Queue: 2 jobs
Job 1
Amino acid sequence: MTVVSSVKNLEALSLTVVAEFDAGVGRVWQIWEDPRQLERWWGPPTWPATFEKHEFVPGGEASYYMTGPEGEKARGWWRFVTINAPHRLEFDDGFADDNGDPVADMGTIHGVVTLEPIGDRTRMTILSTFEAEEQMEKIVAMGMEEGMREALGQVDAIIAESVNA
Amino acid sequence: MVVDQLRTQLNDDELDRLFQAFADATRRDIVRRVTVGEYSVSGLAALYAMSFAAVQKHVAVLERASLVSKEKRGREQIVRANHDGLQRARRLLDDYEVIWRQRADRIADLLAESAAPEPGETQAGARSTKKSQGQAEGN
């Protein structure tokens, strides 16, 4: 399994996911640093992401959209808070309107990504914390759920596989 | 299956109520406490620097979000955790976890592609055999 563990904190509304990859830290860092690589995994296959802006420096911004099966676009933005290549990345992630401007009242998800070497492999830890404000309800109700419904179809298949195994 | 339950059990109104309920520190604290044991409303009110009425209001919000249930016992109102409701909140985080698991799988595929000359096995099979000479590792 790629994901080796995950911890949910219901009160803090945070999720920690730990994954391990068969590649060095420098290589794994590129999947965040290079927008063309980022596009290949950020969105589910049915909602691929396109990064129009990706200023990978502290204080820099990224803007992207995900394109749905009907051609609909869901826009998002990031703000890079901390970048310590190739070990630590902190960023805020939120929804944007059609112009790519942050939707202020929708809140953000704060992400902290750390990469550590384990031999010639890499352990990546992602801590996602939702703002404990009322905006959060919208993040989950709208964006997450929307993107997720698509993802859920694939999950069904995965679960079915593991049940049959 | 968890996924199917989520589809049928969570509509937007429910989500709104759920996250509104969690958006307040006192309410989160109430939830934490009643998952361990039952409390009367007045027992809870004694814990916080706010009026009985204010605490009662918080409990009502939690009740509407199906996170706690309230029951009259004599002159007391007993507050308990609603485990179905809590389960539902947990499922939301489960969903988010699913998103990340899928992302991790896609990352593994992407990495396998650039590392191995021939396309590896699918999905979890990203743990390939090349483990000898380590690739140049950034520092």
Job 2
Amino acid sequence: MEINAFVIFFAAIFTSNILLTNFLGMCSFLSVSREVESAFGLGLAVLFVMIFTTAINYAVYYLILVPFDIIYLQYIIFIIVIAAFVQLTEMILERFSPVLYYTLGIFLPLITVNCAILGVSLFMVIRQYSFLQSIAYGAGSGLGWLLAIMALAGIRQRLKIKQVPTGLQGAGITLIITGIMSLAFIGFSGIAVIQ
Amino acid sequence: MKKIEIFRQSAFKENAIIIQILGICSALAVTNLMQNSLVMGLGVTFTLALSSMTASLIRNLIPSRVRMMAQTFIIAFYVILVDLFLKAFLPEVSRQLGPYVGLIITNCIIMGRLEAFAGKNPPLESLVDGIGAGTGYTLILLTISFVRELFGNGTLFGYKILGEWWIGWSIMSLAPSAFFLLALLIWIVESHKSKAGSK
């Protein structure tokens, strides 16, 4: 595939936002979007982990799995890499930067089971991106996820004082808002296509 | 508890998607076509049932510190089976589902059932619980994809239902409709529940 890495970067943020068009990372998106501060913390952690795990998984896939012809093990290997990276980050942060640890640390365990992280690695393999393209895709998807969760958290904070029908409170209204956001993001389509 | 009671509880009363809001990612992503939803639902049910049983079989052997890791491995093992099966026998569906088959590993429903049920109950009950939760998941997927495929393409399982006069309602094939339909389902169930509660 001959797509400029910049195009992939912007497309991953806007036209094929990992959350609003691919529905990845919904669980933590719905549960941690009550406050803007915590949404920002989680978004940053996702962005950070996503860039690095995409790079590591790229190396592991093309240097180990392909030469040894064990591609069918990719799911297990990818999830191990992600879990190990998250664990390592947590330990390093705890040791060297207590401030950062208290802002990001509580979100790190959540990230291992965030499907957006594994999803980006799998999309990278399926779409046969080069190394540079993969990094751009990982960074763009992470930024797109951060953008989406910040927007939702901002809306939800204002929604607290509004009256919502009983049956829609909580998950219902959040999904409707996400749907409207997703509609708005369709407006970006046409800028770039990476499918 | 009777097995049928366990099944009803995990499939309907504690429906993973509508009541517990778990496993939304794949529920939204594969529901544009009924065929994809059915395959995905069966894949999740298979993985859920067997990994529940396996986790329950070895629940006393695993120290609680590495429990999560062990559970992830068990799930990944069954997901690989599903993936290889789809690639071999249904290559077209496998291509359309893309990464979502692999993402069954991080489907919170499975981890949730293993933690909440299989860790404390004997294997046979866990198997029934897994099948129940998987059935509940599949039913919701089929409901959403029924609406999306019928109005989006005028077809069901690829067969033309609405005639030539039907012009595809294109938003139904796109992402936003999935959010709206799921919200609508949750709304219906929640208001039904609160009505039943107030009586």
